[in-house]
DNA sequence: ACAGTTAAAAGATACGAATGTTTAGGCTTT
DNA sequence: AAAGCCTAAACATTCGTATCTTTTAACTGT
């Protein structure tokens, strides 16, 4: 088991001082776990033990544990011999928590575009490497949808997003795929405003279509060099 | 206000059927919001109204609302005239939610490395563009720390992570920076195991050091081309 | 009119109790 | 001794209630 030390003893370390009792307890527990140098799989205790030690109500302790679980620190197992355990490291959970600590600044559309472009090559190369017959059929269908959508910019953007999202789903790298799709989702929900007034030279949209056509062909052929070239065109030609 | 329709009416749409009443309510509310085509800033109602409509307890409704807030769907304002409102789109919150839906598959270390490498150029170019005097001083300090850490692989890895993390903090792109740091944090916590048995040719570590030296110099000089070249070396020479 | 004060509306947090679910290990039956 | 049932231990969910904090509209006194 582990024993919680007095909150006062660790008060000078606290940076963002927690606002609720549950948060405070979560911080205390995390500090104690780190201090004790506990490793994944180690048994931490049971909810009732924590409750007895702290004198807090069940719901409050439960909330603290929920926070630690969401941060990927603890794993909770019900049943006999169950309780709280140190969780194995999980990149997705960690990433989520890191994102949670990001101050809610007005992260701009430009930031999202930069992030998306940085991932474009990885995502599309993965697609070229791992595409299945189903993937290929879907991509062909979405590409012809993109061509049909050339009539209006709005339809084109929508078809465009659908195509890129489907490509991202091919990648076996769930982290990269999730980040990419999340970024894409944001862009699709926020770009309606500043795109409409874009008169765009006549050839612009058909040019965009040809770039996507080349990209899809490269993916279907599994030609990674061609994918890299198509991505380069896709990113620079904006 | 908006009116919740009967759960039966929408049952056929539900894919991942929610397990708790709170989750079910959150799904119903989200569906209703989408169906009604509500826009950011729109007033949805108050907790008590939802409670009256559904007959659920305060804690349950509160939990559903907490979920929707975490997903970046709702914004809650206390006080007179307050209540639940549609939240403006926020990329960080969205990204977090997307990550939440990722199935908890054993996302491999290799995936994390690929994601990190994809972001390396963006992060380091941003650093070269936006470094301040404080940043430069810190980087110089961390670089000499890296040199001193050449004695043992473990110390070198630690110093290496500290340097990369500091570089990432320079970028004004909070999303990209958060994703990068999260990935780095995972790698630093999980790579202790499979690195120790690496006997490494004598020149390997000093070679790694020289690459980082070149990278830091390029960032300090604001030379983006040199940054790109250093990143290329950094990524390929593993 | 205007500035300061007050009070009501709304959410946030915490509590304790009751009930449901999951799991592991023991027990029973063949 | 193997198969399956049973039950106690642990977490999960929900409820109702009480108290606190925040916000803003209304009021009041100059």
Can you lay out the helices and strands and say which pair or pack?
2 copies of one chain form a homodimer.
Chain A: H1 21-35, E1 43-45, H2 47-54, H3 58-70, E2 74-77, E3 83-86, H4 91-101, H5 109-130, H6 133-148, H7 153-168, H8 174-190, H9 192-195, H10 202-221, H11 224-236
Antiparallel strand pairs in A: 1-3, 2-3
Helix pairs in contact in A: 1-3, 2-3, 5-8, 5-10, 5-11, 6-7, 6-10, 7-8, 10-11
The structure holds a DNA duplex (30 and 30 nucleotides).
Q: What gyration radius of chain A follows from the Cα positions, in whole Å?
A: 24 Å
Order of helices and strands of chain A: HEHHEEHHHHHHHH
Count up the helices of chain A.
Answer: 11
Summarize the biggest pleated sheet of chain A: 3 strands, antiparallel
What gap, in angstroms, lies between the N and C termini of chain A? 58 Å
CATH superfamily of the largest domain in chain A, by name, is: GntR ligand-binding domain-like
Helix proportion range of chain A: 55-70%
Shape descriptor of chain A: elongated
Strand order of the largest sheet of chain A: 1-3-2
């Amino acid at each position: 088991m582990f024993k919680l030390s007095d909150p006062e003893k660790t008060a000078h370390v606290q940076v963002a001082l927690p606002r609720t009792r549950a948060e405070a307890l979560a911080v205390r527990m995390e500090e104690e776990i780190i201090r004790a140098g506990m490793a994944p799989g180690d048994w931490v205790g049971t909810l009732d033990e924590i409750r007895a030690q702290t004198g807090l109500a069940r719901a409050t302790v439960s909330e603290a544990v929920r926070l630690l679980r969401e941060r990927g620190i603890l794993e909770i197992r019900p049943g006999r011999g169950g309780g709280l355990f140190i969780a194995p490291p999980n990149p997705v959970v960690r990433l989520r928590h890191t994102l949670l600590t990001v101050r809610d600044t007005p992260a701009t559309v430009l930031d999202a575009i930069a992030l998306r472009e940085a991932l474009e090559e990885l995502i599309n190369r993965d697609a070229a490497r791992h595409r299945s017959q189903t993937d290929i059929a879907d991509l062909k269908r979405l590409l012809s949808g993109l061509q049909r959508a050339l009539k209006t910019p709005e339809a084109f953007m929508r078809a465009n997003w659908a195509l890129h999202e489907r490509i991202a789903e091919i990648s076996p790298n769930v982290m990269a795929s999730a980040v990419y799709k999340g970024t894409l989702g944001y862009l699709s929900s926020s770009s309606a405003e500043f795109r409409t007034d874009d008169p765009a030279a006549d050839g612009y949209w058909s040019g965009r279509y040809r770039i996507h056509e080349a990209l899809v062909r490269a993916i279907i052929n599994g030609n990674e060099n061609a994918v890299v070239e198509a991505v380069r065109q896709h990113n620079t030609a904006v």
